[in-house]
Amino acid sequence: MSIMSNMNFGSRCGRKTLVVAISLMIAGLANAQSTSGSIFGQVPASAGEVVVVKSTSGLTRNALVDASGHYSINNLPVSSYDVTLQRAGKKVAQRSDVSIRVGSGSNVSFTESDISSASAKNLASVTVSANRLPIIDVTSTDSRSVITAEELAVLPLGRSTQAIALLAPGAVAGSSHFTGPLGTGLVAFGGSSVTENAYYINGMNVTDPLNGLGGIDLPYGSIEQVQTLTGGYSAAYGRSDGGVINQVGKRGTNQWHFGGQILWTPKWAKANPENIYFPPAAGNSAGDIYSYQHDNKTWTAVESAYLGGPIIKDKLFFFGSVEGSKSSGSGVSPASSTATQDNYHYIDPKWYAKLDWNINENNILEFTDASNKHQFGGNSYAYDYQTHEKGDFVSENAPFKTSAQMWIAKYTGYITDNLTVTAQFGKQVTDYYTQLPNSFNPDLAALYGSNLQNPKYSGGGGGITNTQNVYSSTNPAHQTRGANYRLDVTYKIGSHTITAGIDNQRTQDVDDGSVIPTNAGYAWAYNKMPNGVTDIVAGAVGATGIYPGGADGYYVSKYVFSSSATVRVEQHAQYLEDAWQVNDRLLLKLGLRNDQFTNYNNNNQAYIRETKPQWAPRLGASWDVNGDSSLKIYANAGRYYLAMPTSVALRGANGSLYSDIYYTYTGIDPTTGYPTGLTPVDTANGPGVAYSGNGEDGTPPDPHTVTSKSLKAEYQDEYVAGFDRQFNKTWVFGAKATLRRLKNAIDDTCQGDVFAAQATAEGLDPSNVRGCYFINPGRAADILVPDGNGGYGEMHVSGEALGLPHLKRSYYALNLYLEHPFDGKFWGRIDYTFSRSYGNSEGQVKSDTGQDGIAATIDWDYPQIMEYANGRLPNDRTHQLKAFGSWTINPQWTLSANISIASGSPTSCYGLYGPDQTAPNYGNGSYHWCNGVPVPAGSAGDLPWQHIISINGAYRPAFAGHKLAFNIDIYNVLNEQNTTTISQTNDSNYKLVEAMETPRYIRFGVTYDF
């Protein structure tokens, strides 16, 4: 296990020279390939020496030993190798089972005593463990963790790459509001939002193309290594200002292996979830049960199998695996007269296949294919909150299935000892299918906000609901298609190793969008103002008090939305990096990346075009202080650009419709939950006429008028400095400081009145001004306005006129760690991280309110929304302590643990605006004011600390040759169920619990490996 310190394990070299330092430098360059590593070392100098490495998959490479006794072989696929020293064509020493880690090098050195010992044993292998001695990798300047298949086999973790990535220092679990399209949880790195990461499989970017919410996962048993980059990564990586999760899949070897695993988590092995109660803000209902959770349980079963080996020995290899996961359970809706119990199931199959062809010693061809599916189905039944009994069938839940598949073809050519070329091409296709359930009633409108109904008519509590559980419907033909191709060239010349490449990606989002599928085409949305005299939307939608039933601020709206489009994004990048060994102790990495992004609308017209050079320097330095790899001081600085994903076009650049018709009401139908006694509320468009607060009235916008002409891409600057220190043969400790600053972002602002006024001032027609534009928050905007004759006028809107503050998101952290590499018995690591994430923007999403519309949250829409927005951000965790590792008691018994302790996230209070509690643009829940008092972001109290302890025990009996294993995992041993998410809107649900820690559960497993 290696995290942050990037340690490698092998024999220690005694003295260092410039030549060996250059070898070390080359070893560290494998990072650029994202799936490879290197082997280097020192031997007693002698004429005619050659070092030969041969992998378990038959690949053979060799390197001449120079006059100083040093050698290096880079760009080796991740595998296990035999390393042989030859003199005059004869083997004189050998080390076996040397493992390399992705992006790192393994030091394999020989001494005269090794050679003498091998000779005495007639060249029997001098077998060493790659973990025998920790050597700090003085060639790296980034921040990474690498977890291997052997470590994954024993650690008590969730079966996803996100769960693995959470082991990295500074990584925090994403909000429960968000999940990826394939059903996985998400992770945030270094103060960034959950949509700002990049996900890779065998060198290909497999990030969710719609919103950046996760990526494709390998079957757990197919993972060879997972590399998590949390900062300082090379110019070869881009399209992320969060972190990079890089999965390297297994490959076939010269021996056939097969195996399987069964995992089972029964309902009876799960602790009962705690119930949720109405918060103090609920008034008379405070303390009453809101949601009965006690019996909400699931069972889960996972079956997996793998097979790998040689099709042609030393030439052609195959590895394949399948994994099937199914879970089934039930959950009860919040208390109401029409409460339901949902019985549901999820099916999540995965598969992975890899072919490796060693054409010859200098040419390798690889092919990877992988797939994930996520499928849901279920039924709703009546539920009696008095007896806690399930009743009659009510309806079928809308089934859905998301299916993602990718493939990659990759060529590696070792053209000369100094020149390596890799070329890669791959495709990814994802299908999103949601089916209307058989029980769908097209004549019944859905209800929003039933808990905000006037209790005079609803009876209080959760309000009156109905059986409609389909709120929107998507096109069953919805699909994304992506293509990625890249070329990387590495050339060594003197003390410089130069790597250059191109990295291009195209993504198309086909038939995306959603509508309300009922015959009426609308839903009823209940809401409440604090009183009857405050406008629902200041100056646009009137107050309720002058209408029947509206004296206390209660109202309802007829809500309509619709969007549909086929859009695409083109991304191109070029990079150049020089690893320069200045002297025997100082290494500089000088990189430069240029990213270009273009977003296209439904008519294949560009509406965001960032094709001018966007230079992203990546600079790193590593100082081997003592010259023996016992103390490394390192630093790096870099800039990271991020494009807008495809989904941005749906609302921002196409004809989406989001509107409301507002009413007061004097009753509620007890069967349908519909409002009765309706009276239209006056709006800027007239009473009973639809009003769209942000101008989304269904009219397709002119792509020239969607964004500011001076729009620049999102980017972040990062600075890292740290040290790693080995203080004896078995322990390493270190520290690292990180500073990140988001310098620019893209979001929409909807100040139509400001834009219209500026148009008038510049002699342009204000009626041709749009309601919303994409801008760089805090900066001036240059907007094109149609002149009515087929041309455009241009207006300049200053930052002062927009009234928005400068964008701010800063993150600083100090990480301290202590690590014990595996010594045949024990390995472990402890991390403590102190950090702060603060500013006035989390990034592309809003975790505290669950808004996942990229560049379309309510932030920056109006100046009033950004007042008091500066503060601690939702992904802030001031203190984090992580510890994990395993202890091999004997060949039969292994114990392991994973501990995560973290302070709670900050919360906010969103209410109406100002001391008079008005709604100048949007309604309640939009402003950093509550009860007429400003509440700065993140200042409404912290959620509780989390203390998650999980343990694993494994038994591999000797009678089965240690090939059969029985496992027990206990997650959340303490059964802590502290709150992780609350409602932060200042209404009767303020501080209502929305999510808690997962209760304790036990997972049983049986594994067989042959």
UniProtKB/TrEMBL annotation:
Protein's recorded name: TonB-dependent receptor
Q: Which GO terms describe its biological process?
A: siderophore transmembrane transport
Q: Where in the cell is it found?
A: Cell outer membrane
Q: Which organism is it from?
A: Rhodanobacter glycinis
Q: Which family does the record assign?
A: Belongs to the TonB-dependent receptor family.
- Report if keyword Transmembrane is assigned: yes
Q: Does the keyword DNA damage apply?
A: no
Q: SUPFAM superfamilies recorded for this chain?
A: Porins, Starch-binding domain-like
Topological type in the membrane:
Multi-pass membrane protein
Record's InterPro entries? Beta-barrel_TonB_sf, Carb-bd-like_fold, Oar-like_b-barrel, Plug_dom, Plug_dom_sf, TonB-dep_rcpt-like
Domain (TonB-dependent transporter Oar-like beta-barrel) spans 342-605
Q: Which PANTHER family match?
A: OAR PROTEIN (PTHR30069:SF46), TONB-DEPENDENT OUTER MEMBRANE RECEPTOR (PTHR30069)
Using the record's annotation, list all stretches that form the TonB-dependent receptor plug domain.
140-243
Q: Name one GO cellular component term.
A: cell outer membrane
